[in-house]
Amino acid sequence: MSQVNTNDDYLRVMGLYGGTDRDAAGIGGMVSLWFAGFAIGAIMVGSIADRVGRLKTIQIGCLWGALGAALLASARNMTWLAFGRVISGIGCGHLNTVVPIWTSELADAHARGAFVAVEFTLAMSGSAIVYWIEYACVQTRSLAFSWRFPLAFQVIFLIIIFVFAPFFPESPRHLAKTGDIDAARVILMQCRTHSDPILIDQEMQEIVEALQVEAADSAHTYYTMLFTKDKLHTRRRVLLGAGVQIMQKFTGIDFISVYAPTMFSLSGFTGDLPALLAGFNWFGYIAALGLSIYLSDKVGRRKMMLSGCLGMGIVLIVGGILSHETVKYAAINAGKSHSYGIGVATVLYLYTIIYGGTWLTTCWVYPTEVFPLATRSKGTALATVAFSVAGGAINEIIPYLINAISFWVFILFALINLVMLVPIYLFYIETARRHLEDLDLLFSSDSNFAWRAEAQYRALKAKQSDEHVDKEAGPVAVVPSDE
User: Which one, of 22, 21, 23, lies nearest residue 8 by Cα?
Assistant: First the structure.
């Protein structure tokens, strides 16, 4: 929506052309309505995915998304557009909730983050394509076509996904949960980089044992997950999964990605240059996501989040200072103002690279890892609802913030990033390179602190290892004495 929000024909048709506070609220509201639909779609996935399977849930999301795209592309007024935004959001909520779940349940433990990073690299590549299509339309076509066509273009990809989804393997963990153990084992054999039947049987046994434990000890409804204490500490997991999605929005990514042309205008650039700079920013974004494919599992989730917040906090502080100087010298020294503006643009590029390389993958893979299989769909759905609520709130106030405090928006989000280092360090347990079933052991600790949970986990794993050795050794035979 970054170029749609500044399209004169869109603003005229929707009655948002006056530049008033009401118009700013309307623009932000249309963006936020998508997040409302996103939350509805996520909640639906929490109930549907366990009943019909991951792949059929993906297909349902495609149908919602296609209907929403048709409504958006044909909108004639704000009410029409609002329904389109909500329905489109439902489709995206479906897909963005269930696809990471499906990927995490299918992938090897050592490559789970990389698989999700590949997904979002492709997703951002699609967003970049749409952005440049929209820019090309603005330059060569009518203003009406330049915002309607890109909104309709997504239907092509949704149809492709809908048609080919049944040809992909179903989640082996979902199959095991529904009792189809043989089919789950076959898919594990097909999807693992090794073909060792012993390792496959061991993973299958871990899945079955986890299901048995979860059936007796974990919460299974949205209400019990939120308000009931259980042995698997599901409520704590909800807070961590939802927390990482809320923090993702408070990194400030939306004030750069959704309102990118506006932010580049704060760099002192005018005309078509802000839109061009925002478009080129996508290339750095995609390259950073490509880097996260390599880093996600090697570095780990905790270090990715900590380094990302620290890096974004620093560059945003620099961006705020440079933006202040750009505004300060705009009327008295155009050359100096332009030089500072180039610095601001560089900061925006660096910020996007840091975010894409550290946070974007992590915030979507982490919620799919921390929940038990019995409640993974519902838990990930709750985390996605948190993403939607935070995203809707942030996108509603960003137009006001930019108009009200200008370059101080950089400093505001810089401070938020630095503050977020504290809860990440204290409470977020490392999940990378671990089987999903091992997370039940990690969260068995009564302590909320990450280092204590890790210490107890190591002790439990050592105990399990000793018991396994004793079991394999069997009873010791006693040889009777001749005496």
Answer: 23
CB atoms within 10 A of CB 411: 17
The CA distance from 65 to 300, in Å, is 33
pLDDT given for residue 229 in this prediction? 84
**Gap between the Cα atoms of 42 and 24, Å rounded:** 28
Report how far Cα 29 is from the mean position of its chain's Cα atoms: 21
From the list 96, 118, 109, the residue with the least C-alpha distance to 188 is 109
Q: What is the DSSP letter of 481?
A: P
Helix-helix angle 143-164:112-140, to 10 degrees: 150
Residue 453 and residue 442: Cα distance in Å, rounded? 6
At 239, which amino acid appears? L
Residue 263's Cα: distance from chain center in Å? 23
Please tell me whether residue 213 adopts helix, strand or coil conformation: helix
Please report the pLDDT score of residue 47 as a whole number: 83
The backbone region for 433, taken as left when phi is positive above 0, alpha when psi lies in -120 to 50, beta otherwise, is left
What are the C-alpha distances in Å from 115 to residues 91, 294, 296?
22, 10, 10
pTM of the model: 0.82
Rounded to whole angstroms, the Cα distance separating 242 from 43 reads: 13
Residue 110 region by backbone torsions, left for phi larger than 0, else alpha for psi between -120 and 50, else beta: alpha
Per-residue pLDDT of 320-341, as tens digits, reads: 898 888 878 877 887 888 888 8
State the amino acid at position 90 in one-letter form: I
Token duo for residue 203 = 């993973």
Max Cα separation, the chain? 110
| CA distances to 147, 251, 301, 386 from 429, in Å | 43, 20, 8, 19
Q: Are the C-beta atoms of 152 and 70 separated by less than 8 Å?
A: yes
Write down the pLDDT at residue 300: 92
Please write down the HEC assignment for all residues of 337-388. HHHHHHHHHHHHHHHHHHHHHHHHHHHHHHHHHHCCHHHHHHHHHHHHHHHH
Between CA 419 and CA 396 the distance in angstroms is 22
